[in-house]
Amino acid sequence: MRLALALDVPLRQHNALLIAAGFAPVWRQTNLAAPELGEISRALDYMLAQQEPFPAVAVDRHWNLLRSNSGAVRLVEFLVGPLAPDTPVNLADALVAPDVLRPHLLNWADVVRYFVRSVEADAAADGTLETAALYERLLAYEGVRSAVNAVPIDLAPAPVLPMHFRKGNTSLRLFTTIATLGTPQDITLQELRIECFFPADEETAGILRGWVAQS
Fold it and tell me: What is residue 158's predicted lDDT score, i.e. its pLDDT?
């Protein structure tokens, strides 16, 4: 345990080390809806609500959607139409696959290049079959390998890389931030990511605010 702490080994891999050495795991993995995570759950809902009218989502380590705010729902419904209730959503597949967000993402190749490389880094860091399978699944989509291996034409033309969506005459430019919980003592909480989408220009901000007025 001292070795794992000194090396800053993630809690999931810390448990794996203990099991490999013949010991019981010490870190638990609790469902986010469990009563003992009530305060965390309420804090998460607060964060998502504060991001309105702009989109925000909470995902697990494999980009499975756990929660979203109304801004995220409005964005998805505008781009791809409404989803059936309780439909499982994986944001990695939605971004990389050829038939979901890609038709509306003008700079898909640039965005996917950085995203898939981040998943590759996750796979190298956690060493699990599940993350490796996610990485290989993303690479198998049409055009992904060439996008990942391509050299960007313009190096750092802007402070951040926005996602540039266009559908019909509507253009949306969004950049994201990702937050994690500080000092988590639970595997679920350590692997939780809260991604907030911000408008990269006033036009996008006006459109997102306008959708609220129309609803």
Answer: 75
SS3 sequence of 49-109: HHCCCCCEEEECCCCEEEEECHHHHHHHHHHHCCCCCCCCCEHHHHHHCCCCCHHHECCHH
- Supply the CATH number for residue 106's domain: 3.30.450.180
Q: How confident is the model at residue 175 (pLDDT cuts 50, 70, 90)?
A: very high
> pLDDT digit string (tens) for 103-148?
999 999 999 999 999 999 999 888 889 999 999 999 999 999 999 9
Instruction: Report if residue 13 sits inside a domain.
Output: no
What's the rounded mean pLDDT across residues 65-86?
94
Per-residue model confidence (pLDDT) at position 127: 82
Mean pLDDT of the chain: 94
Range of the domain at 195: 31-214
Q: Do the domain assignments include residue 6?
A: no
Residue 5 lies in a domain: no
9 falls within a domain? no
Split into its structural domains, the chain has a count of 1
Q: What integer pLDDT is reported at residue 89 of this predicted model?
A: 96
- Which amino acid type is present at position 76? V
